Amino acid sequence: MLVLGVLLPVIGLIIGVVMRLTHFKWRIAPVDWVTFSLLLASDILIWIRYRYQATSLLIVIMAIMAIFVAVSLAWRRGEILYRTFLKIWWRLLFAPSLLAYLILVVLQWY
């Protein structure tokens, strides 16, 4: 289970690169796949370390960030475009999910 939690972001990056190189209609960046796999890996690592299912906590954090992005887009641009909102929100989730993942990986060895 620990191996899956550590290797899941690498698998997400590989999937993202493969999807980017193929000619799918969706042109999803590899960072988008890595964000998803980091969230899953963080949940797995929290389960291993603390025996706590953190899915609900991750959903609440994602919802709070979505509210922040929506309010800031409405205030700055005067409108909320669905595509722009989702792209900014998902890319902003990358930094905290990467930070949480790295902290959890370090905590696994202490």
Notes on the structure:
With 110 residues, the chain is an all-alpha fold. It is 83% helix and 0% strand. It is built from four helices and no strands. The longest helix has 27 residues, at 82-108. The chain is flat, with a radius of gyration of 16 Å. The two termini are 17 Å apart. The mean pLDDT is 86.
The fraction of residues assigned to DSSP E strands is: under 5%
User: How would you characterize the largest beta sheet?
Assistant: none
User: What would you call the structural class?
Assistant: mainly alpha
The number of helical runs is 4
Record field, number of beta strands: 0
**Overall radius of gyration:** 16 Å
Mean of residue pLDDT values: 86
Order of helices and strands: HHHH
Q: Topology of this protein?
A:
Blueprint lengths: L1 H20 L8 H21 L4 H23 L4 H27 L2
Helix pairs in contact: 1-2, 2-4, 3-4
